[in-house]
Amino acid sequence: MTAETSQTLDRGLRVLKLLADTDHGLTVTELSHKLGVNRTVVYRLLATLEQHALVRRDLGGRARVGLGVLRLGRQVHPLVREAALPALRSLAEDIGATAHLTLVDGAEALAVAVVEPTWTDYHVAYRAGFRHPLDRGAAGRAILAARQQPVDGPGYTLTHGELEAGASGAAAPLLGVTGVEGSVGVVMLADAVPERVGPRVLDAAREVAEALR
């Protein structure tokens, strides 16, 4: 800790991170051990976080992340979208296909940014806010593939006709971005994805990941 930082705020943020990393919650005693502070400090931290709905405690006394975190999370999408747009525009213009940034939202893939090419006669209409299951479409499948360690294959995913008849997709996961799970991809009207598209999508995903770090 430095003179410019707040020890209490630091501990509160560490509590949130610890709770976010567990599905079953943590007791005051467990948090006390993990933080290296006494139980009284943990009680005060939890009480403050509960007032802001960032933490909730169940009947058994286990602390979990609260619904207030969701309200904060909704504000992340515009920031992520803004950071990704330059790489998406370049990708869409280069490939001549609709480019998109997709993030995980529960069990679904959610398109949070979409850029359509300006010079093509026709392209797939793909709108921000479009949702689909993670196990369908290149965007979701790329995310699922990234959950496997290590990632096998070329680093990108290709699909055809899974979300729209006659449309093919290519997507690559965002890697190395703390707190963000998603992918960058393109969708096009084609029977197959041209050979150069996969590596180009992979490069775009790296550009977006770098912009978000």
TrEMBL record:
Taxonomy, superkingdom: Bacteria
SUPFAM superfamilies: GAF domain-like (SSF55781), Winged helix' DNA-binding domain (SSF46785)
Every HTH iclR-type domain range: 6-67
Keywords assigned by UniProt, alphabetized: DNA-binding, Transcription, Transcription regulation
Domain IclR-ED: 68-213
Record-linked SMART domains: HTH_ICLR (SM00346)
Record's protein name: IclR family transcriptional regulator
